[in-house]
What we know:
By secondary structure, the protein is mainly beta. It has one helix at 71-75; strands at residues 10-13, 16-17, 21-26, 33-35, 46-48, 56-62, 83-84, 87-90, 96-99, 104-114, 122-130, 134-137. It is elongated, with a radius of gyration of 19 Å.
Amino acid sequence: MSSVGGRLAAVRYGANLVAGLGEWGMTGFTPDIQEDTAFGDTVKKYKQAGIGDAGEITFSGLYDPADANGQIALRALANTDTELTNLYFYESTSVFWRVGSGGALILSKFEGPKFGKNMLATISFACKVSAKVMERVT
Length: 138
């Protein structure tokens, strides 16, 4: 079995590394399931129909107030209705995920910074995948 460690993972906004992050993940595609039961059936039947949900991506880590081209640039997009096509989620130095051509990422959560007396400040983001699914680029 092949496995991938997270040590080399990263998030890039365009060519810029988003500093301080330590985790990212995506929910993936969820198809729309509709009931397909007819008169006379004794057990409900379902089928994939309609339009599916391309999912959500979350990413978080340590807050870096000096990261002008990463964290600060992303936070500046709050309430702008910006559709991103240049946000990349790396699983290694050369393999990454991006939204498919014709799709976009819509930033939906800008959380933090969060401070605690016995912790380093954290920050987190989330985005909805819109119109196309995520694709893995090798």
